[in-house]
Description:
This protein has five helices and no strands. It is an all-alpha fold and 127 residues long. It has one domain. Helix 1 runs antiparallel to helix 3. The longest helix is centred in the N-terminal third of the chain and has 24 residues.
Amino acid sequence: MNKTVLLILRIAIAIILIQTLRFKFTGHPDSIYIFSQVGLEPNGRIGIGVLELISAILIVIPRTIWIGAGLTMGIIGGAIVMHLTKLGIDINGDGGVLFYTAIITFIMSAIVLWSVRKTIPFWPKTL
């Protein structure tokens, strides 16, 4: 994959992750509502926020791109599952923006992870 496109994807993922942190860390009512619905308020809200911050940092550092992308996929994968099982697509009349943003972030992270797979220390060199 083109290095510029990969860099743009990494920055976009980091921006998405970081922009959601203000809602989690300030205790925005929507964030509290979401995490209450899934039984993770307040520790899960703060803990997931910290993990998202770590993911955002790791995905922009060249040596740790694969860790950041993998961690992002895990976190966002969990969010997608929660949307599909407990929360629903539309939360508090957002029209599904949170859900669709999660889908897009997951796909971008998968693309980034696949693109840097050969930098993963335990990845087979023949694939």
